[in-house]
Design brief:
The complex is a heterodimer.
Chain A: E1 3-12, E2 19-26, H1 27-35, E3 52-60, E4 63-70, H2 76-88
Antiparallel strand pairs in A: 1-2, 1-3, 3-4
Chain B: E1 2-8, H1 10-18, H2 25-37, E2 43-50, E3 56-63, E4 66-70, E5 80-84, H3 93-112, E6 125-129, E7 138-140, E8 145-147, H4 162-176, H5 184-206, E9 216-217, E10 232-233, E11 242-243, E12 247-248, H6 264-271, H7 273-286, H8 294-303, H9 313-328, H10 333-344
Parallel strand pairs in B: 4-6, 6-8
Antiparallel strand pairs in B: 1-2, 2-3, 4-5, 7-8, 9-10, 11-12
The chains are: A alpha+beta, B alpha+beta.
């Protein structure tokens, strides 16, 4: 069974505090959520100030995905993925 | 000598302009003038006083045009408008704090820097409160200020601090003036400019001199469970909190301690501590009211022609010296204080 590791780092915000969530699990369960995200076409948010920035990384075997997702773009599959990781693991 | 201030909302201005009574001829003419010749004035500030002959005089100045919306715990903007300009307070603390905070910020920019709102042309000030569930943040989205209620464990509501409200509105001022790019050093400067004017709003509203002011950003935002007084300290960056859960305030106050990171657009909320402290040092050296000297120099800097959107600390420092020289002269105490302030944080003007 292939293992997957997903890390979500939230930085920025008014307070500039960094929080991290990390989950390790079965690739069969998690990788479809990873693949549903548009890793190569994350929209920029040039207008907002003091919003959060999510640095998301997923690894399984040799497969690796990483993206910097502004809070304003954290919708659809991104939101589902981050919500699941946060639910599976409390922040540290 | 002005003795009383009041804000006249746009609808009332229109009514005054229509008055057909000789007793109010001056006010009516002034209101008509405001409406007809300066489309940017959406509301006016009415100042009453007596002239040398003991005659009651009324002066019209620019006034804010505020609207506060309630997102009702959803993450959708703008939400439902619950208080407009001129409306009486409502039974909702966050709404009224936002309304008053926008008014206080407008007053600083209008009365001290002669700037009519965010864009200098009377742009309406719109805010949304109760954004999201347990939402731990306040932000500017390019059009409006947005405030969360906090999680109740670490953060309480973000409208509780006037410096936070002033900070968000100042992001709008930067957007319409210097346009400092929100990344690395220019991003830290963008952040610092918001802290500077956020602190000045608080000081001007409370009538606090340099030595009376706390120089804290976001005082009262943390709950009692957190070991900390505020989110940032301009006077002593790195000293705002030291808590078991949150750790220690990581802000540097000197260029030697500049934080290189990919997080937070290159650490814009961390490295802002360096120009923040430079501003404090300038103000401390000059004493009195910070908005009368250091504040004017910084305002002139962000609205002047010297500053570019990608300025680094050294270029910004250089622009503040040009601004101070223009306002107070090359050999003035103010210009000397600016040079010494930057030197105190290890920044050599470009």
């Amino acid at each position: 069974m292939t293992q997957v590791t997903i890390t979500v780092v939230r930085s920025g915000g008014f307070a500039g505090l960094r929080r991290q969530w990390r989950v390790e699990g079965d690739a069969e369960q998690w990788w479809p959520l990873v693949e549903a995200c548009p890793w190569r076409s994350v929209p920029h948010d040039r207008d907002s100030r003091d919003r959060f920035v999510y640095s998301i990384t997923a690894r399984a075997d040799r497969r690796r995905r990483t993206a910097q997702v502004p809070e304003a773009a954290l919708t659809g599959p991104w939101k589902i993925l981050v919500d699941r990781v946060q639910e599976a693991r409390d922040g540290s | 000598m002005p003795t009383s201030h009041g804000i006249v909302p746009p609808y009332l201005l229109t009514r005054i302009a229509r008055l057909d009574d000789s007793k109010f001829a001056t006010a009516a003419a002034a209101a008509r003038n405001a409406l007809e010749h300066d489309a940017s004035i959406r509301a006016v500030r009415l100042t009453f006083g007596f002239d040398e002959g003991d005659v009651l005089v009324a002066e019209l100045g620019a006034g804010p045009d505020r609207s506060i919306a309630d997102a009702e715990s959803r993450e959708q903007l703008p939400g439902l408008v619950v208080r407009r300009e001129g409306d009486p307070p409502v039974a909702d603390l966050a709404v009224d704090e936002a309304y008053d905070g926008l008014g206080a910020t407008f007053a600083l920019f209008s009365e001290v820097f002669r700037r009519n709102s965010i864009d200098g042309a009377g742009l309406p000030l719109d805010a949304t409160v109760h954004y999201g569930e347990l939402y731990d943040n306040a932000f500017w989205n390019g059009e409006r200020m947005v405030f969360g209620d906090g999680d109740g464990e670490i953060f309480s509501r973000f409208t509780a601090s006037l410096s936070v409200i002033g900070h968000e509105l100042a992001h709008g001022v930067t957007q319409y003036s210097s346009g400092l790019v929100y990344r690395d050093q220019s991003g830290a400067l963008n952040e610092s400019v918001s802290d500077v004017f956020g602190a000045l709003v608080e000081q001007y509203t409370l009538g606090q001199s340099v030595d009376q002011a706390s120089w804290l950003i976001g005082e009262g935002i943390f709950t009692d469970q957190v070991e900390g007084s505020a989110l940032r300290s301009m006077k002593n960056p790195g000293s705002a909190y030291d808590d078991d859960v949150l750790g220690k305030d990581p802000q540097p106050g000197h260029l030697d301690d500049y934080v290189e990171t990919e997080d937070d657009n290159g650490g814009v909320h961390l490295n802002s501590g360096i120009p923040n402290r430079a501003f404090y040092l300038v103000a401390e050296q000059l004493g009195g009211n910070a908005w009368e000297h250091a504040g004017r120099i910084w305002y002139e800097t962000i609205t002047g022609p010297e500053l570019t959107a990608r300025a680094d600390f050294a270029e910004f420092a250089s622009a503040t010296i040009v601004a101070a020289t223009g306002l107070f002269g090359a050999d003035s105490a103010e210009t000397a204080a600016v040079r010494s302030g930057w030197s105190g944080v290890g920044v050599t003007p470009a």
